[in-house]
Amino acid sequence: MTTFANITALLDRQQADYRVVEHEAIGQTDAISALRGNALSQAAKAMVLEVAMPDGGGSRFLLAIVPGDCKINFKSAARAIGGKKSSFAAPEMAQSLTQCVMGAVPPFSFDDRLALRVDARLRDVGTLWFNAGALEKSIALNADDYRRIIGDASYADIATPMTVSA
């Protein structure tokens, strides 16, 4: 089953309020948000991180979801799952864990090796927008339904607003 099919099956099972939007294949948050007509703050930007665990505990992988108008805070993201520090996972590992090309990763983990943490700013955006496992498909999902599906424990302060210089 494709990632897109996994997402829509999950949303259907959970009776979530969502819609699918098809568009040209764009993997950049600002460009796709402009095309879809959503605010950057409503866009769920997904990143796969490798998190170093304390006391020689090896590493874990984290699917970090931040608003499109923010950047990841690597230290806060690591702490959200009990780690010390984090960095981007190797692209091959990220693709293996998500079964998606980068830019198409949705805000859901379908792999037990991939923990999920979502920046708390995305809790109350009304409608959450994200690429749905394919660069040419997006989903607009009711943010309350997303919160109900992933649970409050998945939220953490893991992002920093981007500053715009004049």
Characterization of this structure:
25% of the residues lie in helices and 33% in strands. It has one domain: YbaK protein (Alpha-Beta Complex), CATH 3.90.960.10. It has a five-stranded mixed β-sheet. It has a three-stranded antiparallel β-sheet with strand order 1-8-7. It has a two-stranded antiparallel sheet with strand order 4-10. The protein has helices spanning 3-13, 29-36, 74-79, 91-98, 143-150; strands at residues 18-22, 44-52, 59-67, 70-72, 85-88, 114-119, 127-134, 137-142, 155-156, 159-161. It has 166 residues and is of the alpha+beta class. A hairpin with a 6-residue loop joins strand 2 and strand 3. It comes from Pantoea latae. This is YbaK/aminoacyl-tRNA synthetase-associated domain-containing protein. One of its GO terms (molecular function) is aminoacyl-tRNA deacylase activity.
Number of strands: 10
Strands of the largest sheet, in order across it? 5-2-3-6-9
Mean pLDDT: 95
What are the low-pLDDT stretches, counting only 5+ consecutive residues below 50?
none
Q: Which structural class do you get from the secondary structure elements?
A: alpha+beta
- Which term fits the overall shape? globular
Task: Report the top-level CATH class.
Answer: Alpha Beta
How much is the radius of gyration in Å? 15 Å
In N-to-C order, the SSE pattern is: HEHEEEHEHEEEHEE
CATH superfamily: YbaK/aminoacyl-tRNA synthetase-associated domain
Oligomeric state: single chain
Number of domains: 1
| CATH architecture group name | Alpha-Beta Complex
Please, how many helices? Answer: 5
Q: What does the largest sheet look like?
A: 5 strands, mixed
Q: What helical percentage do the residues reach?
A: 10-25%
Through-space gap between termini: 46 Å
What is the CATH fold-level name? YbaK protein
Organism: Pantoea latae
GO molecular function: aminoacyl-tRNA deacylase activity
Protein name: YbaK/aminoacyl-tRNA synthetase-associated domain-containing protein
Pfam families: tRNA_edit (PF04073)
